[in-house]
Structures are given as C-alpha cells and as structure tokens.
Amino acid sequence: MTGASGERQMRRMTEEDIPDVIEIEKRSFISPWTRGMFAQTLESPVARNLVMTESGDIVGYVIFYQAGLEMHIMNIAVHPALRRQGIGLDIMKRVIESARINSVEECFLEVRETNFPAQGLYERLGFKRIGKRRGYYTETNEDAIVMALSLE
Ligand SMILES: CC(C)(COP(=O)(O)OP(=O)(O)OC[C@H]1O[C@@H](n2cnc3c(N)ncnc32)[C@H](O)[C@@H]1OP(=O)(O)O)[C@@H](O)C(=O)NCCC(=O)NCCS
C-alpha cells in the first residue's frame, strides 16, 4: 500500500471486494458491518456501494442509499494507514457531485458524538447539525448527531 494519490479511482464495489473492505471496516469501527451486511447492500436496488482504489488497492469505500430526492450516507471509511491525505474528502465530493447530477436535494447522515474526524470532514463539506438521536449506537449507548447537506 503506497498511499500515492496519482491513480485514485472510484468504482462499484463487487462481492470479491468484500474481504478487503471488511479489513478496513474492522479497523475503523467498534461494531463493524459483517460480510452479510455488505452483501445485502450490494443486492439492494436503492443502495450504492463504491470503492476508492489507488494503483488497484482499495483505500476506502462508501455506501449510501438514494430514495427520491434524498440521499443517506450509511457507511464510509478510509484505510487507517492512509488517513488525513484527502481520500475521505475525495470520496465524499464525488458522492455529492453524483447526487447533484441525480437531482438529490438533501443528503443525510448520522455520526457518533465522539467521532471528531468524521464530523470535521462533514463540516468541511458544508453539512450542518440538524438533530440528535439518543442512544442510537446501542453497544455504547452513544448519541448520534444527525447532519444534513442541502444541495438545492
Ligand atoms: C472519517 C474518515 C473517513 C476521514 O477520512 P480521511 O481520508 O482521513 O479524511 P481527509 O484526509 O479527506 O480529511 C478531510 C478533512 O476532514 C477533517 N478531518 C479528517 N480527519 C480528521 C481528524 N483526525 N481530526 C480532525 N479533523 C479531521 C479535516 O477538516 C480534514 O481536512 P484537513 O486534513 O485539510 O485538515 C476517516 O477518519 C475514517 O475512516 N474514520 C473511521 C471510520 C469513520 O468514522 N467513518 C465515519 C462514520 S460516520
């Protein structure tokens, strides 16, 4: 894994990508998604699963749902060794750009109250805090901050 930003590409996630994605997932979250959860989103007609690659290696991924005029970011992570190099920002900018093209009006997500890196990323993209979901993360009883970005 070089971290060179020269050949960064975003493409659809496939079944074959799931093991590499899960490696990143396990190192990124207290309650990582399982193989079954990723596989389920791959089959969902409203979900989009994308991976970011650099020189062919998966360096990050994002999963979101689009329903009508709304988009909901379900999961995003960047390989721990390659953070703070603009990959997360690059992934989100591309997702938002495609949302605009698809006439999405609002983009939503939930983020842990203590997840300051992710909150920093979303704020930088213009997301605003619009509410809280109490005890949303049941394994730690942590609240979620709900954030939204208006694309109109
Ligand atoms: C959140 C995450 C995807 C960010 O990915 P990244 O590639 O490291 O982010 P970027 O390098 O593109 O950072 C873009 C901006 O986000 C903010 N940011 C990112 N990491 C940050 C940190 N550790 N502390 C503060 N702000 C941070 C900064 O504004 C940063 O810009 P800067 O580097 O010019 O200051 C990554 O930290 C990650 O995978 N975390 C674990 C999984 C996770 O929490 N996902 C979000 C669930 S809601």
Write the SSE topology.
Elements: E1 8-12, H1 18-26, H2 35-43, E2 47-54, E3 57-67, E4 70-78, H3 87-101, E5 106-112, H4 116-124, E6 128-137, E7 142-150
Parallel strand pairs: 4-5
Antiparallel strand pairs: 1-2, 2-3, 3-4, 5-7, 6-7
Bound molecules: coenzyme A.
Residue fraction in strands: 35-45%
Radius of gyration: 15 Å
Query: How many helices?
Result: 4
Query: How confident overall, as mean pLDDT?
Result: 94
Percentage of helical residues?
25-40%
Small-molecule components bound: coenzyme A
Question: Using DSSP, what is the number of strands?
Answer: 7
Query: Multimeric state of these chains?
Result: single chain
- Low-confidence blocks of residues: none
TL;DR?
The protein is α+β, with helices and mostly antiparallel strands.
Structural account:
With 152 residues, this protein is an alpha+beta fold. It has a domain at 8-108: Gcn5-related N-acetyltransferase (GNAT) (Aminopeptidase), CATH 3.40.630.30. Helix content is 28%, strand content 39%. It contains four helices and seven strands, in the order βααβββαβαββ. It has helices at residues 18-26, 35-43, 87-101, 116-124, and strands at residues 8-12, 47-54, 57-67, 70-78, 106-112, 128-137, 142-150. The N and C termini lie far apart (38 Å). The mean pLDDT is 94. The chain binds coenzyme A.
